[in-house]
Automatic annotation (TrEMBL):
InterPro entries: Epimerase_deHydtase, NAD(P)-bd_dom_sf
Superkingdom in the source lineage: Bacteria
Any matching Pfam family: Epimerase
Protein name listed in UniProt: Nucleoside-diphosphate-sugar epimerase
Record-annotated NAD-dependent epimerase/dehydratase domain positions: 6-207
SUPFAM superfamilies reported in the protein's UniProt record: NAD(P)-binding Rossmann-fold domains
């Protein structure tokens, strides 16, 4: 029974832990607060993963190390570099293959579907951070110091998934209220299910021939924000979705009071036009078919309703 170490107890980290435990692996899930799914076979550990020595100690003897962490959005520039360095150190010290959960920011604005062959051309600070993390990991891989790969997805759907859609649009749709999004409501947009990211992480870790490159998590055909909201309302039995475009100035004004909103304008391009992911390579390599958008939406809706119910019960 192999040991698999996961850093980050968010949606992807938790889904990966459940997947590995279900197949009988020993799982150690690290997060600052020691949270995560209460599942047999998953050891929950409170640890600071930016401490290289601490992370290396917890990774000793592991077959794979999965980076599923997500620093606060406004702290990417300060928090990602030390975490990235600690992950490289732990991978080198332990010999565990490092598989990182990435995103599409490093590509920048792209005209057409995004493939793994696109060069990094970040047009945002956050994109530059992600591009540097992968460049450092790949350089260490090519130097023979570590073994690594990266799995990239688009905006997430699934339990506890956080995106502009799940934060700004879906709660309003479920409540029968009008929602506003800083988006071209009819532009095609890819939505990746967190469970499919987890399945791809595990498949990549087990396939030595898949290391040394990025992979796009299997993702279904794109849907616009309007179409996704409409379908969510239908699946939830809610009133017909009403969604409007949030003016750019409104987002900037919101940033005066909300730190997350303050960070969004630099990546707003992802919602203001087509943002489409080509994941055919991973499906061909690993045989992973993307979960349907309907099923991903059902899980997202159920998760939001559970959170809303828990919040109401504590008032």
């Amino acid at each position: 029974m192999a040991l698999h170490v996961i850093v980050g107890a968010g949606p992807v980290g938790s889904a990966t832990a459940r997947l590995l435990a279900a197949r009988g692996d020993e799982v150690r899930l690290l997060s600052r607060r020691g949270g995560g799914p209460a599942v047999e076979g998953v050891e929950l550990v409170a640890a600071d993963a930016t401490d290289a020595a601490t992370l290396a100690r917890h990774t000793a003897g592991a077959a794979a190390l999965y980076s599923c962490a997500g620093p606060a959005y406004h702290r990417w520039s300060t928090d990602w570099p030390p975490l990235g360095a600690a992950l490289l150190h732990a991978a080198e010290a332990s010999g565990a293959v490092l598989v990182t959960t990435g995103n599409l920011y490093a590509y920048g604005a792209v005209d057409g579907p995004m493939t793994e062959q696109l060069p990094p051309r970040p047009n945002s600070v956050k994109g530059e951070v992600r591009a540097r993390l992968w460049a450092d990991a790949l350089a260490a891989h090519e130097a023979g110091r570590i073994r690594t790969a990266e799995v990239r997805g688009s905006d997430y759907l699934g339990a506890n998934a956080l995106s502009a859609f799940t934060a700004l649009v879906l709660p309003k749709v479920l409540a029968g209220k009008r929602a506003a999004a800083p988006a071209d409501l009819d532009a095609p947009h890819s939505w990746t299910y967190v469970g499919d990211v987890a399945r791809t992480l595990v498949a990549v870790a087990a396939d030595e021939g898949a290391w040394g490159r990025p992979w796009h998590a299997p993702t279904p055909p794109p849907m616009s924000v309007r179409a996704l909201a409409t379908r969510a309302a239908e699946l939830a039995g809610a009133p017909a979705a009403r969604v409007t475009t949030m003016p750019r100035i409104a987002l900037r004004l919101a940033g005066v009071f909300n730190v997350t909103a303050r960070e969004m304008p630099e990546v707003e391009y992802q919602l203001r036009g087509p943002f489409v992911l080509d994941s055919s390579a991973a499906t061909a390599r690993f045989g992973i078919e993307p979960t349907s958008t309907d099923d991903a939406l059902r899980e997202t809706i159920e998760s939001l309703r559970e959170v809303a119910g828990e919040s109401a019960a504590t008032r």
